[in-house]
Specification:
- The structure is a homodimer.
- A six-stranded parallel sheet of chain A has the order 3-2-4-5-1-6, sandwiched between helices.
- Chain A has helices spanning 18-31, 49-57, 78-96, 108-113, 119-128, 144-149; strands spanning 8-12, 36-40, 61-65, 102-106, 134-138, 152-160.
- By secondary structure, chain A is an alpha/beta fold.
- Chain A has a single domain (8-165), classed as Rossmann fold, CATH 3.40.50.300.
- At the A-B interface, helix 1, helix 2 and strand 6 of A face helix 1, helix 2 and strand 6 of B.
- Strand 6 (152-160) of chain A pairs antiparallel with strand 6 (152-160) of chain B.
């Protein structure tokens, strides 16, 4: 099956749950036989649980990781920007192919925030979305122009986070 | 593998993304070989995409639906409360068994809001949580006592929702 109508969803804010919400959407869509691509920006730092689980849901679920290992070099973004720009070309090709019913651009808002991708490029991606493809954009500090152009926006607000109590990122929960 | 330490996470608020965030956590955990139970309250209305996908991730992922078909009868909650109370007994047994690394009580906050479950019963569930089990509670209007007792709380705030533009619940996205 395919969607009758595809919308654009944005998950932003400083709270936990943005990437996981997009992964939950992916799980639900796969259950219905929809084809899903989760395209991750600035997440080159090794395989997480979702990447391992995706193998069990192939070929309906594809997760593509892009980004340099480690975190963005905020002192000199040259290399991170080049990596993100290359990733953006790939994401655009996959999106416009119309092959996917659900297409997630994970952390694309973060990539914009770091100056690795221009907001105009995200807006172009939103315009290029095939009619029956659902597009999901995640990452904190979504640009106001992205919010304006989206159909659904949820802000994940951190009320309380256990990292402040010293709980480290845990395998199977955060990664 | 198992978690070294289990926390309690709450996803609340009026925005889209609470159940899907818990499903994304489930997907990630399953990828790491953790055993997951998603126990759904007041969701007896037929199988969603996540239930179909769970079959592909068995035996690591179990999703249990409870609730009467249709929505809660707010004019007379007698039968819905009985159903929810029975479900709570089952959820408590599964949680305390320690068999699951990640245990999600989906929509339990909603069940409290409707008067089907007492907040003291949720607090008891939180106290009974095995040390190495991660417990996730979802649903809007989480009770302040639940928020106080949790380790992590994210409020999903609706900034914009497409249902207001007339987009209906879509198979593969909302269900």
């Amino acid at each position: 099956m395919h969607l009758e109508q595809g919308c654009i969803q944005v998950y932003t804010g400083n709270g936990k749950g943005k990437t996981t919400a997009s992964l939950g959407l992916a799980l639900r869509a796969v259950g219905r036989g929809l084809k899903v691509c989760v395209f991750q920006f600035i997440k080159g730092g090794g395989r997480y649980g979702e990447h391992l689980a995706a193998e069990k849901l192939a070929p309906l679920l594809t997760i593509i990781q892009t980004g340099r290992p480690g975190w963005v070099n905020t002192k000199d973004i040259t290399e991170d920007r080049r990596t993100a720009q290359d990733a953006l070309v790939q994401a655009r090709e996959l999106l416009v192919s119309g092959e996917y019913d659900l297409f997630v651009c994970d952390e694309i808002n973060g990539a914009v925030g770091f100056g690795l991708i221009d907001v105009e490029q995200v807006l172009e991606l939103m315009r290029l979305k095939p009619e029956k493809t659902e597009l999901v954009l995640t990452g904190r500090n979504a640009h106001q122009l992205v919010i304006d152009a989206a159909d659904l926006v949820t802000e994940m607000v951190e009320i309380k986070h256990y990292y402040k109590a010293g709980v480290p990122a845990r395998t199977g929960i955060e990664m």
